[in-house]
Amino acid sequence: MNILIIEARYYEDISDSLLEGAVAALQKVGAKITKLTVPGALEIPHAIAYAEAGERDYDGYVGLGCVIRGETTHYDYVCGESARALMDLAIDKCLVIGNGIITVENEEQAWARAKVDQKDKGGFAANAVIKMINVRKALAEKPAEKKT
């Protein structure tokens, strides 16, 4: 299993915690992990698209980041557009993508979702990728022919 983790480093400490959970989950299944950093959540779908267009062959992707509501509507656009772009890639290209971009009201909520000993959303996104790779494999297999 070859997985690319793309992490938005806008909130570096929170990103570190999300990454810790994702890496731990992937290491449990012996996945080969490549890490790539991007500036923010909106750049995660771009990086996945670039990876798909490149020479490397990834079985799945884990997008990690944090968006904390501010004083403007920018939060709404970043949350909605990053999630939409990830879903578009997953559906249109049949990609396995774990969305580990947490969207929260404040830093306290971010930490509760990012910490491995709490909600571990990084680990959750990585486990979703593992499960969906298995679903994709199961659905791609042709059933054995019946003997008569």
TrEMBL record:
Database matches in SUPFAM superfamilies: Lumazine synthase
Binding site for 5-amino-6-(D-ribitylamino)uracil: 10, 41-43, 66-68, 99
Catalytic activity: (2S)-2-hydroxy-3-oxobutyl phosphate + 5-amino-6-(D-ribitylamino)uracil = 6,7-dimethyl-8-(1-D-ribityl)lumazine + phosphate + 2 H2O + H(+)
Active site: 74 (proton donor)
Keyword entries, A-Z: Riboflavin biosynthesis, Transferase
EC number(s) on file: 2.5.1.78
Protein origin, superkingdom: Bacteria
Annotated GO MF terms: 6,7-dimethyl-8-ribityllumazine synthase activity
Biological pathway: Cofactor biosynthesis; riboflavin biosynthesis; riboflavin from 2-hydroxy-3-oxobutyl phosphate and 5-amino-6-(D-ribitylamino)uracil: step 1/2
GO biological process: riboflavin biosynthetic process
InterPro entries: LS, LS/RS, LS/RS_sf
CDD domains xrefs: Lumazine_synthase-I
Keyword check for Transferase: yes
Cellular component GO terms held in the UniProt record: cytosol; riboflavin synthase complex
The keyword Transferase is annotated on this UniProt entry: yes
UniProt binding sites for (2S)-2-hydroxy-3-oxobutyl phosphate: 71-72, 113
HAMAP family documented for this protein: Lumazine_synth (MF_00178)
Family: Belongs to the DMRL synthase family.
Task performed by this protein: Catalyzes the formation of 6,7-dimethyl-8-ribityllumazine by condensation of 5-amino-6-(D-ribitylamino)uracil with 3,4-dihydroxy-2-butanone 4-phosphate. This is the penultimate step in the biosynthesis of riboflavin.
The protein, known as: 6,7-dimethyl-8-ribityllumazine synthase
